[in-house]
């Protein structure tokens, strides 16, 4: 008899997007002619840029000929891609990494979920609240999160991010071993200035903790003073692992490619106090459980770093950021308190008069035929907020704002 890993039984059912779909479908069944606009989607909508398409077509042709065919690649990723990453994503920011510190992955979700295997199950952990659910659920699966009671996990330290602290998480007043940070943030769309990030790095150095830094939305940062990588902070390579993804940067959600940085200076200790570098253990883990990202995806990713690729990717990001600014301006004019949307594709909107997230979701759906994501779905501190994304079409964004304006007049 095989016994199930009981930790899976503790997982909360992830009803958020299913519940949204159910409510939207119910509305559509009652109003078959209504044209519902979704500002709730967390997926990109614009196609891959021409530079990427050309590179991927060429890669497919490579696969068609014996001389240029590629079978299994290196588990850590092709060296040409890792060198392009080091040279383009880090060197211009004064960060010197070795290609051996880069691990190409099939998107950041797998690695943000798997990385917890590197450290013992009984380490303590902290997350910002609201949060991308992967950080908690992956820890629940290996028993690290404890038990769920009153909306929270017993072994998880929650750092609330609300309008009351301007969405800047407070450093815990006690030691934690593992800290998950995501900036620019999903869902709040907020960023962390250098001074704030420095506090976290210093905390981690002082407490011998590890920071898991999710930089999936780094390419959306517009403010030149906001750090794109935690390694821009001195000392961070001793304490931080960083995750990148081409999903939101270049529309790779369906292609699948990203990378994880595990610096050679980063260590963890054995119970008897021996210090060991995690880079070699992550390589060991990947070589065992992962056989690399497809050659075609990696050639597509490499093309993002060509001059044309850079220009085209930036244009798409500007398209989404223009959507964000249109929505931000319209909603602010209508009297909403709006956060984010200046360095991230997400807007975090306070519901009027502290209306609960789900209630406001329904009001917006029935009043304006616009779909948002209830903030409480991302954690207890998301209550009283909704998330809007700028990944839709321009015309839909403009139409949605006009409808909200009409609805409020009624
Ligand atoms: C979308 C997203 C990712 C990227 O996921 P992929 O697996 O690379 O597609 C990572 N972190 C956050 C917070 C995200 O929202």
From TrEMBL:
SUPFAM superfamilies: PLP-dependent transferases. Its EC number is 2.6.1.83. Substrate binds at residues 15, 42, 109, 132, 186, 291, 387. Belongs to the class-I pyridoxal-phosphate-dependent aminotransferase family. LL-diaminopimelate aminotransferase subfamily. HAMAP family: DapL_aminotrans_1. It catalyses: (2S,6S)-2,6-diaminopimelate + 2-oxoglutarate = (S)-2,3,4,5-tetrahydrodipicolinate + L-glutamate + H2O + H(+). Residues 35-404 form the Aminotransferase class I/classII large domain. GO terms for biological process: lysine biosynthetic process via diaminopimelate, diaminopimelate-aminotransferase pathway. Pathway: Amino-acid biosynthesis; L-lysine biosynthesis via DAP pathway; LL-2,6-diaminopimelate from (S)-tetrahydrodipicolinate (aminotransferase route): step 1/1. The keyword Manganese does not apply. The gene is dapL. GO terms for molecular function: L,L-diaminopimelate aminotransferase activity; pyridoxal phosphate binding. This is LL-diaminopimelate aminotransferase. It comes from Prevotella lacticifex. The modification N6-(pyridoxal phosphate)lysine is found at residue 248. Pyridoxal 5'-phosphate binds at residues 72, 108-109, 132, 186, 217, 245-247, 256, 291. Gene3D superfamilies: Aspartate Aminotransferase, domain 1, Type I PLP-dependent aspartate aminotransferase-like (Major domain). The lineage of its organism: Bacteria, Pseudomonadati, Bacteroidota, Bacteroidia, Bacteroidales. Homodimer. InterPro entries: Aminotransferase_I/II_large (IPR004839), DapL/ALD1 (IPR019942), PyrdxlP-dep_Trfase (IPR015424), PyrdxlP-dep_Trfase_major (IPR015421), PyrdxlP-dep_Trfase_small (IPR015422).
């Amino acid at each position: 008899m095989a016994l199930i890993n009981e930790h899976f039984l503790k997982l909360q059912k992830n009803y958020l997007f299913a519940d949204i779909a159910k409510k939207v479908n119910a509305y559509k069944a009652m109003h078959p002619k209504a044209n519902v606009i979704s500002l709730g989607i967390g997926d990109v909508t614009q196609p891959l840029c021409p530079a990427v398409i050309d590179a991927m077509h060429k890669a497919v042709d490579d696969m068609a000929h014996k001389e240029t065919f590629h079978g299994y690649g290196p588990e850590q990723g092709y060296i040409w891609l890792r060198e392009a990453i080091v040279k383009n994503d880090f060197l211009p920011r004064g960060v010197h990494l070795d290609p051996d510190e880069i691990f190409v992955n099939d998107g950041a979700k797998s690695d943000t979920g798997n990385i917890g295997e590197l450290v013992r199950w009984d380490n303590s952990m902290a997350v910002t609240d609201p949060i991308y659910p992967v950080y908690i659920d992956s820890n629940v699966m290996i028993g690290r999160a404890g038990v769920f009671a009153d909306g929270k996990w017993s072994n998880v330290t929650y750092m609330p991010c609300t309008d009351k602290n301007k969405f800047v998480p407070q450093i815990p007043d006690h030691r934690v071993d593992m800290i998950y940070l995501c900036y620019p943030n999903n869902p709040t769309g907020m960023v962390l200035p250098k001074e704030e990030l420095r506090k976290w790095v210093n905390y981690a150095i002082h407490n011998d903790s590890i920071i898991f830094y999710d930089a999936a939305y780094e390419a959306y940062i517009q403010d030149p003073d906001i750090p794109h990588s935690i390694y821009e902070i001195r000392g961070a390579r001793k304490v931080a692992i960083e995750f990148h993804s081409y999903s939101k940067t270049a529309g790779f959600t369906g292609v699948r490619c990203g990378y994880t940085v595990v610096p050679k200076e980063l260590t963890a200790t054995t119970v008897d106090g021996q210090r060991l570098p995690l880079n070699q253990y992550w390589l060991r883990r990947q070589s065992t459980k992962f056989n690399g990202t497809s050659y075609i995806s990696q050639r597509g990713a490499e093309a993002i770093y060509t001059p044309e690729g850079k220009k085209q990717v930036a244009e798409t990001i500007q398209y989404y950021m223009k959507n964000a600014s249109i929505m931000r301006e319209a909603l602010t004019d209508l009297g909403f308190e709006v956060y984010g949307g200046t360095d991230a594709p997400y807007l975090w909107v306070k519901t009027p008069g502290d209306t609960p997230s789900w209630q406001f979701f329904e009001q917006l759906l029935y009043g304006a035929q616009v779909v948002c994501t209830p903030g409480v779905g991302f954690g207890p501190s998301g209550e009283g907020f909704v998330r809007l994304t700028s990944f839709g079409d321009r015309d839909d964004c403009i139409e949605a704002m006009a409808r909200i304006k009409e609805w409020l007049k009624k």
